[in-house]
Amino acid sequence: MSRPAPPPEIVEVAATLLPHHREIGERLARRMRAEIESYRNEDLIPFHTIRASCIRNIELMIRHFVHTGPADLGPPQATGRMRAEQGVPLPETLHAYRIGFEFLWAEFVAEARRHPAVTDAMLVDLAAQVWQLAGEYSDAVARAYRETTAALVLQRERERSALVEALLTGAISEIGPVEEAGRTLGLGSHGPYAVIAADVPAPGREALPGIENALRAVRVRSAWRLLPDQQIGVASLPDPDDEETLLRLLRRHPARVGVSPSYPSLRDTPQALRFARLALDGLRGKPRGTVRFDDRPLAMLVAAAPAEAARLARLVLGPLLDLPREERERLTDTLEQWFAAAGSTEGAAERLYVHANTVRYRLRRIEALTGRALQDPRHLADIGSALLALRLLPGEAAGG
Fold first, then answer.
1. Exposed, middle or buried: residue 80 (CB in 10 Å: 0-12, 13-18, 19+)?
2. What b/e sequence results for 300-331 when a residue is b if at least 16 CB atoms lie within 10 Å of its CB, and e otherwise?
């Protein structure tokens, strides 16, 4: 932004101050050190960086009143980037600039009193220019700070995602590095843990938006990686209630979600991922749901070997599957409701809204078609497994 040329009397004041910019910058740095909390932390901001920044900015600000032209915003931008990298809060960074311009104004006024030619009207005009410059500097600092912060967030997310990927694939397997990865991700170095796998609605879109923040709010730590087809997470569950908390929050999402059994060491994460994906495969054909591997072990086995499970369904239920569609679905629905009613004919009839004798007739028809008696535990296990395979793998099982 262009500025009017200062009068010669103000240029003379600035020229008098300029050779002392180092001493002024040193005093300003000590004042900032005393007044701003973050600036008192030597580990966060070494004093020599505060001093160097103050000297550079003071020199630049004084030169603005010696030479005309647009403000050079390079130094305040550099300060904004550096403070973002150091983790200094933006309000404290801007407060430092307010202190700096107040300090510079006080130095100008004190020196101007030693120059009889400088009038109060000139000082009023100078004040307007000083605070205009302060606004330009503050805007430059804030813009550079926010841009750097955004870049750092993206960088950290990429690094976290890569670290999660290394745990999931087993690229990190030694105890020391695995524990260090757990600490870096905020998962801790000791379990138990659980892996979560969720089908995404579309490539690049999260299946569980906001889940990490939601879990953090209830003190469950987690780390996530987004793949083209799945969103994968690792959660730390040291408290006995953490697993139920995790499941409760997952069930709020309209997605298919599989959860592994809990496991003690992050070295076992690749195997836990396999279990979580098997649990997820057990939800095939359903629009949503959250299931743990331990909840449906038979379904997990079916999902683990889809080709073999489809052959099992065809072997056991083949004649039934060859029936016309309407009759086939009527019999398989009856069989499914009978299993859901724990083998109760009356319970299945209530679920199907038919008479119990109708259920008995259909069950006898199934026995005749399959050659297996529902009263024989061995045959019952075969039919139950085949029916589960049919429900989980409808196309493969029905199509042979």
1. buried
2. bbbbeebeebbbbbbebbeebbeeeeeebebb
**339-377: b or e for each residue (b if 16 or more CB lie within 10 Å)?**
bebeeebebbbebbebeeebbeebbebbbebbebebeee
Chain segment 199-243, per-residue pLDDT in tens: 999 988 999 999 999 999 999 999 998 889 999 999 999 888 888
Q: In what order do the strands lie in the sheet with 256-259?
A: 222-226, 230-236, 193-199, 256-259, 289-292
Q: How far apart are CA 53 and CA 28, in angstroms?
A: 10
Output the six-digit token pair for 390. Answer: 């049919």
For residues 357, 363, 364, 367, the Cα torsion angle rounded to the nearest 10 degrees is -170
Check: CB of residue 298 under 8 Å from CB of residue 392.
no
Which pairs from 301-305 meet CB under 8 Å and 24+ separation?
302/385, 302/388, 302/389, 302/392, 302/393, 303/278, 303/279, 303/392, 304/278
Q: Which position has the higher pLDDT, 130 or 362?
A: 362
Percent of the chain with pLDDT over 90: 21
Cα–Cα distances (Å) from 237 to 187, 192, 242, 291, in that order, read 9, 5, 5, 17
Instruction: Report the C-alpha gap between 167 and 288 in whole angstroms.
Output: 27
- Which candidate, 337, 290, 312, 274, places its Cα nearest to that of 389? 312
Tell me: pLDDT of 118 over 50.
Answer: yes
Amino acid identity, position 324: P
Beta carbons within 8 Å of 27's beta carbon, 6+ residues apart: 103
Stated pTM of the model: 0.54
**Residues 321/387, Cβ–Cβ less than 8 Å:** no
Closest listed residue to residue 28, CA positions, set 2, 1, 46, 53: 53
The per-residue pLDDT for 355 is 92
Contact in structure between 276 and 196 (CB atoms under 8 Å):
yes
- Tokens representing residue 130 in the block: 């000083």
